[in-house]
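task queued by scheduler; priority normal; single chain, no ligands, no partner chains; default sampling; output format set to structure tokens
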Amino acid sequence: ADVQANVMAAAERIAEQLAETKVLLRQKIVTMILVWSGQEEASWRRTLRCVCDQTYPYLEIFVLGTSNEQPPYLKELKEREERAGRTVTWIPAAEASRDASDGSWAQQLEERSHGDYVQWLLPDEVITPDKVQHMVAFLEMQDQNFGAAFASGREEQAGKWQAGEYFHLSEPILANVPENFRKHFLKTGHYPIGGLSAGLFRRHILSAVRWLEPCFLDGRPMLFVMWQELLRAMQSSAQRGFVAVLRGSFCEVPQDVTPDDFLWW
């Protein structure tokens, strides 16, 4: 055993826990948006489980239905999360878009959500239990103006796409201007390995892109277009800042998804 390495690793973890504790005292709200497409109940259960397992306590949950049919276990989710002090709101996107009295679902999210940060979860996307807490702590403790943070990797192992060093990080953090990431995605045709769930975004970025409502076509999310619009909004925002890539992986994706199929999820 390397005693010095073990002591240093323990010291780093203590420092991380102290930072996370300081951030928890700020009680920053994270708006979590789950998309229900009306299909794939097994995938929906996986996504629900990762939401319920989040260690970060200050969450508000919005279930966005691209079909008008309510998802299974919505009542159970509401009851469980309300006991933990978290709210769960159902927004039928297709119905909201037709009903002028309620406005579009983007307008409903703008008016009804209160989060300082936004976490999206598209169908079958899964994040680790510490993902939100870790990224909120990172964004809150930085001196630089980061508009978003995400982890990314594309390393093929045993014929499957797994989390790896897609950006070949030599340091724990890679920071750059949004336009450089946008050009990189255009050049490679790749977006972050966790899909939209890989990122944690500041609220004003989602407001600038109308909560990504224009990036759905017939209820289907155009993931590559979403990333392009988010990065473009960060670049042109009055609060122009950097985007951070954190080393490591906080997301999972289904193994049958083709990473280069960037037009459709």
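post-processing summary
- Residues 3-26 form the longest helix (24 residues).
- Confidence is low (pLDDT under 50) at residues 98-102, 159-165, 256-265.
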